[in-house]
Design a protein that fits this description.
The complex is a heterodimer of chains A (227) and B (234). With 227 residues, chain A is mainly beta. Helix content of chain A is 11%, strand content 50%. Chain A is globular and about 70 Å long. Chain B is mainly beta and 234 residues long. Chain B contains two helices and ten strands; from the N terminus they run αββββββββββα. In chain B, the strands form two sheets. An eight-stranded antiparallel beta barrel of chain B has the order 1-2-3-4-5-6-9-10. The longest helix of chain B has 15 residues. The radius of gyration of chain B is 20 Å and the shape is globular. The termini of chain B are close together. Classes of the chains: A mainly beta (227), B mainly beta (234). At the A-B interface, strand 1, strand 2, strand 5, strand 6 and strand 7 of A face strand 5, strand 6, strand 9 and strand 10 of B.
């Protein structure tokens, strides 16, 4: 009797887990390296103040299947945009900034016929973002729950966000069950060669996870499994 | 007078270490997996506990851009060892808590192996890790002069970062880390995760780190007279 009850409870947990899409094996989609800045920037003396916009741009040096790419012929760049700071918390030397909105887009630009990316200085400027958003819109991603965490003493931190593939020329190459995932990155202000006017150096990646669909089942059918 | 001296010294230091126009990581990886003893967790790496890591290089940039990390006949691997925890410090209340662990010591090696065979295995150190990462030709070696791991208890995807400084001391390509006769320290940076969901972590490993190394090259000092330097701070 006791065993039956435990088995039933375990079954309930298993069923409950099925109500929310379960994550399968994570798959690395691409890696990105660049810099970030704020635009708009209501208070240039502060990072992550409410109302400020977060932008990051740079190169995508490594991509993975199912994306179809050619890093010899093309240059791949990324832009994170559309993020607005909606909350800032300070805990000792750390700041936590939450953002609304957001997109992470990848572009493919012919190395011969296209334009090399150029960070320039004090972005936005004549070349950043323009030289990062030219060419073909390769992969469009929507970001939600973007959170930036930073230690103001050692000048390093990280960010994370939910990620969903929503567009671009590669959309159809990404299976519909593998379009949801997440991104995370390390950020630092300790690189002494950072172009003037940028806030941090960024190194991140995007992982997608297979969504295991939930199965509808009646109470009767479930209980029958344990009788 | 003392203030003026301080300003002059600060000015000279700034001149010596001003940034060059060059930018970009020399080495990028996805990932390095870190491991330690069972008593090390994402929020507590006790005093004296070691931390080590193994990983593969995914991209090279100048001055190492003649190397091709995607060449299937080779593998480029990273081995980190000898980091010793100075204890984990906690800041904030549960639910909004940060954990910072500084490490002392530590070395890093980067290898080129003509017989690709790296294997993370599980529960390292094991029969293949770090041994299958620490083989081939040693391209670069260095010692950490700073290393910190930062984690927390509130990020959705269990995300933090690890960062350190490296002084290069060996390897067949060490000359490429020198610019204008001056050695360029390495800056080891990147995000890490301890998320167990979705096979992001391999059993027995503590962190997955996505990062890179930059050369923090100082600009050669500009010749100037004391009079000119002092004039800038008057």
């Amino acid at each position: 009797m006791k065993k039956k009850a435990i088995a039933f409870l375990l079954g309930m947990f298993a069923l409950n887990a099925g109500f929310t899409p379960a994550a399968g094996a994570a798959q690395l989609l691409f890696d990105y390296v660049g810099y970030d800045y704020e635009s708009p920037d209501p208070n240039p003396n502060q990072f992550g103040e409410v109302g400020s916009g977060y932008v990051s741009l740079g190169e995508v040096p490594v991509l993975y299947a199912p994306l179809v790419f050619n890093t010899v012929a093309n240059q791949y760049t990324y832009v994170i945009s559309g993020l607005t700071a909606i909350n800032q918390q300070v805990v000792g030397p750390f700041i936590i900034v939450d953002y609304a909105g957001g997109a992470l887009d990848v572009y493919e630009d012919d190395r011969t016929l296209g334009t090399d990316y150029d960070f320039g200085v004090n972005p936005p400027n004549a070349t950043a973002p323009p030289t990062f958003v030219d060419g073909t819109h390769f992969l469009g991603g929507a970001l939600t729950n973007f959170r930036f965490v930073f230690n103001t003493i050692d000048n390093s931190g990280s960010f994370e966000a939910n990620y969903q593939v929503v567009g671009g020329s590669q959309l159809d190459n990404v299976d519909v069950t593998r379009r949801t995932g997440w991104t995370f990155a390390g950020v630092t202000s300790n690189e002494i060669n950072m172009p003037e006017g940028y806030a941090h150096q960024v190194d991140g990646q995007v992982l997608v996870e297979q969504v295991v669909p939930a199965k509808d089942k009646s109470w009767g059918a479930l209980k029958a499994n344990y009788r | 007078m003392n203030q003026r001296k301080t300003r002059i010294i600060a000015g000279l230091a700034a001149l010596a270490f001003a940034a060059t126009a060059e930018a970009g990581p020399i080495i990028d990886w996805d990932p390095i997996y870190f491991y330690g003893p069972a008593s090390s967790t994402f929020n507590n790496q006790p005093l004296g506990n070691p931390l080590a890591g193994v990983g593969t290089v995914s991209d090279f940039n100048a001055p190492f851009d003649f190397l091709d990390a995607s060449d299937p006949t080779k593998e480029y691997t990273i081995v980190i060892s000898g980091l010793t925890s100075l204890g984990t410090g906690t800041i904030g209340a549960p639910g909004l808590q940060f954990y910072s662990t500084n490490y002392s010591g530590g070395t890093i090696q980067i290898y080129e192996d003509l017989t690709p065979d790296h294997d993370y295995g599980v529960n390292p150190p094991n029969a293949t890790a770090p041994s299958t990462f620490a083989d081939g030709t040693l391209l670069l070696s260095g010692v950490f002069t700073r290393f910190v791991v930062q984690t927390n208890d509130f990020t959705q995807f269990q995300v933090g970062n690890a960062e350190g400084d490296i002084n290069w001391n060996g390897g067949s390509l060490i000359d490429l880390t020198v610019t204008g006769g001056a050695p360029c320290p390495g800056l080891f940076t990147g995000g890490l995760t301890w998320r167990p969901v979705g096979d992001v972590l391999i059993p027995g490993y503590l962190f997955r780190h996505d990062g890179k190394i930059d050369l923090n090259c100082p600009v050669p000092a500009e010749t100037s007279s004391w009079g000119k330097v002092k004039a800038q701070y008057r």
